[in-house]
Amino acid sequence: MNIKQAKDYIKDCVKIYLKKDEFGEYRIPVVRQRPVFLLGAPGIGKTAIMEQIAQELGIALVSYSMTHHTRQSALGLPFICKKEYSGEMTDVSEYTMSEIIASVHETMEASGIREGILFLDEINCVSETLAPSMLQFLQYKVFGRHRVPEGWIVVTAGNPPEYNKSVREFDVVTMDRLRLLEVEADYHVWKEYAGEQGVHSAILNYLDLKKEHFYRIEAGLKGKTYVTARGWEDLSEILQMYEEEGMQTDEALVGQYIRNEKIAKEFTAYYDLYQKYKRDYQIYQILSGHAPDSAVIRAQQAPFDERLSLVGMLLDNIQSEMREAVETADYLTELTASLKAVKALLTRDEGATLEQLLEEQRSRREKKIESLQKAGALSKGVRKKEKHVLAFLQEEQKFCMLESGKEESGFGALEKRYREQVVRMKENTAAIGERLHALFVFLEKAFPEGNEMLIFVTELTVNDYSARFIGMFGSEDYRRHNEELLISERKNELQEEIAALEL
Predict the structure, then answer these.
(1) Which of 385, 370, 398 is CA-nearest to residue 337?
(2) Fewer CB in a 10 Å sphere around the end CB: N or C, the chain?
């Protein structure tokens, strides 16, 4: 299965394990809660999906790599204590709490969230001294004398032996206590994730042309060469930072992330060509609706890989704007809820001041962020949204102090500043809509008969942010072309059905 299917499977598994009966007891007892064992090549996103699951379910996450753990750190240190049995005092061996289980308790105390996922990575690389204890842990969720708290689901992961010399293959007895999920790299699934994460369009365009270069681990004369999803994502981040600073990208930089000489060389050459296309086609003029005739003619005459790169560049620009617009809309929606609560309280409680109510809202949100942060369940999107809301509330508190007694003060002045932000958002989304229209006009001129429009519309549809933008603010061009493509697709299906009837 691919990593997306694995994520859905694990998410459903966690939800089932956390299901309670009418008495508040977990319906599946701990001893029957088989841990999931996620087996797959390195760098395909095993850790990333665990973070996503915790964030989406609103539960905590504690992650541990088992490679560095000894018997002592995992099970705890032994010590002697006195206990009375049948009236006699006896020396008994006890264990301090496991570092791993202690981390679970610390997370619960710090966040206030009582349920979560204990994710143990590289589980099949445990030391020889620790291996015998894993059987007990996998079934009973106990390290030493200390049990994983109820409500915490154990998920494990590891690499196949061909990728890691430290791997110890589990025997049948151990595997019989696990739910095995074998995961393979899948570019199309990763591309969907990459689009949402804002991975550099040069990387996505290159991999669209060279899908076989997405994930590769080979043995060579100089040892193993490797290209992983993690490598492409990390390279994307550094490329974007280099571009912001106006710094030069070369093969040596790419080779630090893409550990295959041939692929690193090919991508560097493509990246240089990609930057040249961006300059030659005057992308910003196309977006403004003033595409030069030379750009249209060149696009018409260009080979397929160049046309695909052009479509990718146009998508990258418009989708990044759509993403910001959607994030702004999400922030304003969240802010609206806070301000409505403040207004309602202000109306009901004459003794409360606007400044006090804003402080209460801010404090409540700060505690929420802190709790999710400590639980490991705070996504980048939620963090960014909440930070924007907090910044507005804090700014309004300052206005309350500075403008006290002035004619334009109080909630009316706050509401005015809030509406100014709404107006700016509407103006911005309207401008983005115009640029989207300009792209459709350009593509209609440049590729009246090609598949480029299909690619463009499809990418707008599958990307979460562009799909949400069009859903919220509309696009007549998108609606029209989407309908045309659907009609064309149905026409092809009918022709195939008719052909199948012919003898």
Answers:
(1) 385
(2) C
